[in-house]
Amino acid sequence: MENIAPISWKKSSKPHLFCPGCGHGIVLKQLGYAFDEMKIARDVTFGIDIGCSLLAWNFFDADTIQTHHGRTTSVMVGYKMAKPERIALAYMGDGGGYAIGLQALLHAAYRNNPVTVILVNNENYAMTGGQSSPTTPVGMVTSTSPNGKRAEFGKGLHGPELISEIAAPNAYIARVSISNPIQLKITLKKAIENQVKNKVFSFVEVLSICPTNWKTNAKESFEILREAEKLYPIKEFTKEKEVEK
Predict the structure, then answer these.
(1) Residue 60: how many CA atoms within 13 Å on its side-chain side?
(2) Which residue blocks in 131-209 are alpha helix, DSSP H?
């Protein structure tokens, strides 16, 4: 029988389906590297949310589940209960995770369900036209805040900080940015390893860019990202202490 290498080892690739300059491509590229380095692609089931996240439906040579908006965490928790030997990943945006999906996310963390949640925070509802989301900072212009988001609507939801308050001590919770792809890959691997080895909850928020809805070029996009990194500090969170990266 011919010895055929696993598809994840092939050198061929394909372009992503996201808007030009979108940060999702960077996140998924590093997640793919993590799959290959950990040799887990055949063991992963990848749950994706409605929104920009759904464009990852055929990105990997891994089993993939498309869920309803805000239900990805719940679906992957249920899947993990039925298939405890599988590595369950839930992938979503800040709208899917922090708005309609916040209840499911918080309860998964509170129960310490052994799933890994990856949330891409680009500070807006990107696929539907760039409306304000829970993480939109004060002053940002969006399609629903044409004069800039007002302060009374909140300074921006700090998801990892919130989750760390109710998560178990052995849960892995972190925030990273696409501005440092190597750190991003390392953090994703830590989150997956925590699920596999310790059979507990893991959560990674990834700060990202949205040039299409921000109406920015590359330089301007990363200037906004640097401001986001000030508002949402890059950290690993534990119950005992917060670890500065």
Answers:
(1) 29
(2) 159-166, 181-198
Residue 231 and residue 157: Cα distance in Å, rounded?
10
pLDDT of residue 241: 47
Q: What is the pLDDT of residue 11?
A: 53
65-85 CB burial, b ≥16 within 10 A, e <16: bebebbbbbbbbbebbeeeee
**pLDDT tens column, 2-35:** 444 444 444 567 788 899 999 999 999 999 999 9
Res 6: pLDDT? 46
Q: Are strands 235-237 and 172-177 parallel, antiparallel or unpaired?
A: antiparallel
CA distance 79 to 232: 31
Total residues belonging to the chain: 245
Domains and CATH numbers, the chain: 22-244 (3.40.50.970)
61: confidence class by pLDDT, cuts 50, 70, 90: confident
Place of tokens 């209960």: 81
Contact 69, 96 (CB under 8 A): yes
Q: Which of 71, 82, 60, 49 is nearest to 10 (CA)?
A: 60
Q: Would you tell me how many other CB atoms lie within 10 Å of the CB of residue 221?
A: 21
CA distance linking residue 51 with residue 67, whole number of Å:
10
Tell which wins on pLDDT, 2 or 78: 78
For residue 243, pLDDT over 80 is answered with: no
CA dist., res. 90 & res. 44, Å (int): 11
Q: Which helix (H) or strand (E) holds 237?
A: strand 235-237
Distance CA 222, CA 171 (A): 30
